[in-house]
Amino acid sequence: WYQRRVRGSSFSIDWGIYCDTETQKSNINSFYFVGGFVGLLCSAALLERFGRKTITLVTGIIAVFATLAMTFATDMYMMIGFRVVQGLGLMISYMAHYVWIMEFSPQTLRNFTSAFIMLSWPLGTVLLTFISYFMTDWKSNTIVVSAFSFVVLLYNFFLPESPRHYAQKGDMKRATEVLNKMAGFYGSREFSENTLQHITEENKKVGTLEQIKAFAKFSVMRRRACVMIFCWFGVALFYYGLSFGWHKIGKNIFASQGFGCLSEIVACILNYFLVQVIGRKKMQCLSFFGISVCFGLAMVDLQLSSSWTLQQVICLIAIIFISTEFNTIYLYTVELSPTSHRGLITFSCSATARVGSFIGPYITLLFDVVNRRVVLGVLGGIAMVAGIMTLFLLEDTTGLDIPETPADLQRINELEEDEEKK
User: Fold this and answer.
1) What pLDDT, in 10s, does the model give residues 124-157?
2) How far is the CA of 326 from the CAs of 89, 114, 180, 236, in angstroms?
3) Can you give the pLDDT at residue 201?
C-alpha cells in the first residue's frame, strides 16, 4: 500500500505525517466531527424554522465547497479548518435529508426507505476506495469527489418540502398542495385542509425553548431520547473507531477497507429483512449484544494466516453488527420521536454521536499505549450497556403510526400500560 501511494501523493506524505506523528492524522479525521457536533447543536432550530429542504441544500453546498477548498490547504492546520467546515455542512445536510425523506414515507415503506438511504454509506465508501486506489493524487481525488457530491445534491432541488413540516408550522394550505401532488402521482384521493386538522393548535409554531421544556413535562419522550442518545454515542464510537483504524487492524488497508465495505452492504440487506421480521427493538438489542461478543472474541491472539489474524476477521464480523445497528438506529429514532420534536431529538442524538465519532479515530492509537484487551473490553462493555438499556427502557415501534406530539406519545404509552395491567 505504501509503495503504491508513494507513486502518487497523499497529504500524509506531503506534510511528513508518519508513525511518530500519527496523531496529527487522527486530529484531521476527528476535527471533522467537531464541526459536525457544533453544527448539529444549533441545527434543530434551523430545521424547524427554515424547513428540511432548505437546510439540506444550503448545508450540502457548504460541505461540497469546503471539500473542494481542502485542495488548497498548505499545511495540517488549514486542512483541519476546512475539515471542521466540511463536517458542519455534511452532518447537518445528511440528518436534515434523512428526516425530510422519512417524513414522506408511510408506515409500510419506512423500513424500505431507511434501508435504501443507509445503503448509500457502504456504496459510497466502495466508490471512494476504488477512486483512491486508481487515482493516487489526493488533490485530484478530492476534486472528483466534490464534483460527484455536487451532482448528487442537485436532485434535491426538485423535491417538495415535507408536508409534515408545513403542517407543524400551521401552513395547512402548502401542506395540502404537497399532499395533493403526491396523491395525483399515485392516483390516490385528494386531501383537504380539514384532513390535517388533527395537528393541534397548541403544537403549531412551537419554538425551540418550548420544545426543550416539553422534555421536563413528558417523561416518555425524555426517557426515549436519553436512551437513544447513549446508543448513538456508542454506535458512532464503534463505527469510526474501526473505519479509521483498518491500518492498525489489518496489514493491507485496501483489502481491509474493501471487506469492511462488503460487510456493510451485507448488513444493509440483512437489516432490511430482519428489522421487519423481529422488530426494531429486538434488532437493536441483537446488534449491540453481537458487537459486545465480537469485541470479546477479538481479545484472543490467533494468527490465521500470513495476512489475517482472528482479531481482523472478528472486526469484519463486528462491522456487520455495527452497520446493522447504524441502519436500525436512524429508523428507530425517527419512529420513537413525535413529529413536533423529531428534528430536535434526531439532531441531539446525532450531535452526541459526533462525540463518539471524534473519539473513534484515536481508539486504535491506544493499542500502542495500553493492552488492546483493555480497549476492547471497554468497547464491549459500552455495547452491552446499550443493549440492556434498549431491552428494558424502550418500546418497539414496528408497524405503528408515528405520534405527532409529545402529548400523543404520552397518552399512547399510558393506554398500553393500562392494558398490560388488565
Assistant:
1) 877 887 787 788 788 888 999 899 899 989 888 8
2) 20, 11, 34, 8
3) 46
Q: How far apart are CA 63 and CA 88, in angstroms?
A: 7
Q: Cβ distance 265 to 119 under 8 Å?
A: yes
- Whose CA is closest to 335, among 409, 417, 385? 409
How far is Cα 321 from Cα 339, in angstroms, rounded to an integer?
29
Q: Which three cell numbers stand for residue 370?
A: 495500553
- What is the structure's pLDDT at 85? 94
Rounded to whole angstroms, the Cα distance separating 111 from 79 reads 38
Cα–Cα dist 356/243, whole Å = 13
**pLDDT bucket at 288, cuts 50 / 70 / 90:** very high
- Assess whether pLDDT exceeds 70 at residue 193: no
Closest CA to 319 of 145, 133, 125: 125
Looking up cell 413540516, which residue turns up? 165
**What is d(CA 241, CA 20) in angstroms, rounded to the nearest whole number?**
20
Residues 64/85, Cβ–Cβ less than 8 Å: no
DSSP per residue over 252-266, as a string? Answer: -HHHHHHHHHHHHHH
Quote the CA–CA distance of 210 and 197 in Å, as a whole number.
Answer: 21
Q: Which of 228, 221, 224 is nearest to 410 (CA)?
A: 221
Angular region, 399: left φ>0, alpha ψ -120 to 50, beta rest: left
Distance between CA atoms of residues 322 and 319, nearest Å: 5
**Contact (Cβ atoms closer than 8 angstroms) between residue 325 and residue 291:** yes
Contact (CB, 8 A) for 80 and 24:
no
CA 90 to chain centre: 11
**CA–centroid distance for 164 within its chain:** 22
- Of 419, 247, 246, which is closest to residue 318 (Cα–Cα)? 246
The rounded distance, in Å, linking the Cα atoms of 146 and 68 is 6
The set of residues, in sequence order, having a beta carbon less than 8 Å from that of 273 and lying 6+ positions away, is: none
C-alpha angle 237-241-245 in degrees, rounded to nearest 5: 175
What burial letters (b/e) apply to 281-292, b meaning 16+ CB within 10 Å? Answer: bbbbbbbbbbbb
